[in-house]
Amino acid sequence: MHFITLTTTLLFAATGLAAPSAPQVQGRTYDTVHIEFQGAADAKFDLDIATDGNRVSIGNQLSISHIVSYAPEGVECHFLGVEGSQTYTSGYQTVDVGPPQPQLYASCS
Questions:
Q1: Burial class (CB in 10 A: 0-12, 13-18, 19+), 81
Q2: What predicted TM-score, i.e. pTM, was given to this entire model?
Q3: Is 7 helix (H, G, I), strand (E, B) or coil?
Q4: Rounded CA gap, 6 and 75, in Å?
Q5: Are the CB atoms for 39 and 65 separated by under 8 Å?
Q6: Cross-strand pairs, 108
Q7: pLDDT per residue over 23-77, tens digit each?
Q8: DSSP strand E in 26-102: where?
Q9: Which of 40, 100, 101, 106 has the fewest CB atoms within 10 Å distance of its CB?
Q10: CA distance 44 to 70
Q11: CA–CA separation, 85 vs 66, rounded Å?
C-alpha cells in the first residue's frame, strides 16, 4: 500500500499534476503578494496574501479608497468590498475602490 502511495506521489510530481505552484517571474517564485489598503486621512493597513488563488478574509473595517499591489508582473489579485465592489490589480499597481468601502475578501494568483 505504501508503495502505491509513494509511486502515485512521484508520478504526480514528475508530470506536473501536483498542486499548482506559485507564480514565477524571471525565474523567481512568489508565494505571497504585499498589499496596502489605503483609507482617508492617511489611514492604512497591509496584508501579505498567498498567491495560491484561495480567498482570504481581510477582517478590517477601515473604508478603503485605494489598493496598492506590490506584486510582480503576471500576478493578479481580486478584492470584494462589503457593498459589492470588485477591484482587480495586475502586477505593481495602485487602483481606486469605488465607492470607498471596507473590503471583505482578497485572492491572488
A1: buried
A2: 0.74
A3: helix
A4: 33
A5: yes
A6: 77
A7: 454 555 569 999 999 999 999 999 999 999 999 999 999 999 999 999 999 999 9
A8: 28-29, 32-38, 44-50, 56-57, 64-70, 76-81, 86-90, 92-101
A9: 40
A10: 15
A11: 12
